[in-house]
Amino acid sequence: MSGHVHRDDLGSRLGMWLFLVTEMVLFGGxxxxxxxxxxxxxxxxxxxxxxxxxTLGVINTxxxxxxxxxxxxxxxxxxxxxKQRAMAFLGTTLVLGLTFLVIKSFEWSAKFHHGLYPxxxxxxxxxxxxxxxxxxxxxxxxxxxxxxxxGLSVLGVMLWWVATDRIRQDRYIHLENGGLYxxxxxxxxxxxxxxxxxxx
Amino acid sequence: MSGTHAHTPEPSYLVDTGTRKGVLAWLTTTDHKRIGLLxxxxxxxxxxxxxxxxxxxxxxxxxxxQKLVTAQTYNAMFTVHGVIMIFLFVVPGLxxxxxxxxxxxxxxxxxxxxxxxxLASWYFFIxxxxxxxxxxxTGGGAPDTGWTFYAPFSLKTGTNVSLAVxxxxxxxxxxxxxxxxxxxxxxxxxxPGMHWFRMPLMCWALYSTAWxxxxxxxxxxxxxxxxxxxxxxxxxxxxxxxxxxxxxxQHLFWIYSHPAVYIMILPAMGAISEILPTFAxxxxxxxxxxxxxxxxxxxxxxxxxxxxxxxxGMSGMALMIFSLxxxxxxxxxxxxxxxxxxxxxxxxxxxxxxxxxxxxFIFLFCIGGLTGVMQGALAINVHIHDTYFIVGHFHYVMFGxxxxxxxxxxxxxxxxxxxxxxxxxxxxAAWFPMFIGFNMLYFGMMILGMMGMPRRYYVHLPQxxxxxxxxxxGSWFLVLGLVIFFATLIYATxxxxxxxxxxxxxxxxxxxxxxxxxxxxxETIPTIxxxxxxxxxxxxx
Lengths: 200, 541
Description:
CATH superfamily of chain B: Cytochrome c oxidase-like, subunit I domain
Helix content of chain A: over 70%
Oligomer: heterodimer
Strand content of chain A: under 5%
Largest interface: A-B, 40 and 41 residues
CATH topology of chain B: Cytochrome C Oxidase, Chain A
CATH topology of chain A: Four Helix Bundle (Hemerythrin (Met), subunit A)
Radius of gyration of chain B: 23 Å
CATH class of chain B: Mainly Alpha
Number of strands of chain A: 0
CATH class of chain A: Mainly Alpha
Structural class of chain A: mainly alpha
Number of helices of chain A: 7
Number of domains of chain A: 1
Radius of gyration of chain A: 20 Å
CATH architecture of chain B: Up-down Bundle
């Protein structure tokens, strides 16, 4: 029996789902904070939401949704032993993820430009509710951005593993789990979009 | 060491069989048993640091030693004592040590589902511990907020709160990953025939604990992250001057930290449920009731957090609901206690050190639990809130409960883990000062609290002095007992008599394999055909 490497794909997937649960609860804490604050400051959240660029938010949503699709397509390609195609789809996902970050950074720098960032002199002149709104906006989109970066790093490794045949037709659980993580990043964004960009 | 079981072809897990030897072999091990020991050694170190700080804090309450530390240092000390004891000892204690070591063995597996992740969890634990220690000596000095890091003070104080809070964040990661590992292990790695209701109760306890770790820890992670963001960037969510709400911090903090109390106590209850049948030589009474009560404690225990905030300002309705739910949690806890006592009834009791500590657990936990119900009552709570009563109460639960259960578990499984037996007489000798000192110290605190002594005060009024002296003297007895206890065990690891495979006559799987166990636990994975506590009627001799 020694030397036998224990392999349990179902177990790996279960572990990944459990990890995703912790991620959801992590953001759940922020959603609790958001709901309470929005209940307390409905008008200020409306004003805050008007400052955000809904068009860019929606474009970013489409970008992320498409990237989730390409991850799934790459898994299908691996299952069919189409290595080149799998790598192309994963590469597309990485490009889309980076696009998301670039658009996000434009948004953030525009806010900074207008003096809308935590502790800024301009923000201090706004009513308290709007200060909280932007505090939450930067915290939640920032934390989400970190998750995008983490997800991209994971998928980058997956791309490398597909290229070096560590992920192949009979062994693709890592790619599946990486894909699951990427979907989570996507799902959280789908909640952030209405809560902030469509709050107005 | 390998000579104890010469007929066994497999060498014990304590013998290095890989390419790496010595310390390096331990630091890179993925064997769940070695990782359990790594946790044991590191936690015991932190435990004694925490005990040392506690001892000094008690000394400060004697007039003679008042000048030992300044008031600011005293604030830092109760913070650090709490952080070390909670985050580095009681929360991870039983699951990380005995869960790692025995969960796979108890369900008939060779290891946990994710052995490398398991080792990574230990490194997260050590990294968190190092950060916590660093926070004492860097930046603005040791944090002085108390272990609860309440906003807005934690946002304003110049001491090194950010690093300490980040340390807790990293420790939370360790706890969460261990939880994921255990749940997956229990779902996927059970031996053939090991149905859910054939699992030893320790596994049920670890299973419910793992779920709390999974569902509650991320909340405290995000809360502590918000404290850091607040301190560095001033995002304002807990800061009233920016429209935030400090009460939101308290809610988020206790949404984790109350269930964390059950992370601390459930595995302790699991260990007790293993020990009692072995020494009563009969099956546990009410197996399913104990298993389900673990799960319902995990469930209901997640809905009682605001009883820490009865004086913080909430609606009357919220107060009543949380008060009611708090009392409801006492029901599954009481179910367990009654089942344990019923297990002993008409058993053929073999009185040994692990049983003594298990009974001590039941006694002290009952005091801790019942004073907990007292505090769940709103009117009483207002009177004793933030007094020494609460300090005494949670030490009865944390130390008298979890701590004593951890000692009982250590005594019970020590021969299995190390293949050595300790001196039972020395353990009895350690128990007396420990038990007497414990009750002088913490019952003394509860009396002080009833008299009105507030917690976390550097000085006290003259009318409290006598009881403070009693408590401080008690702390000396307690520490004396602890020193004898651990000296005995450390001596036994070196010079102890070789232990048999089954020194207590237990019937769960860990007693079916050699002491210490071989690297892969079982030569062949056993097939399970019956429940966990099946004692053969003793042959008349």
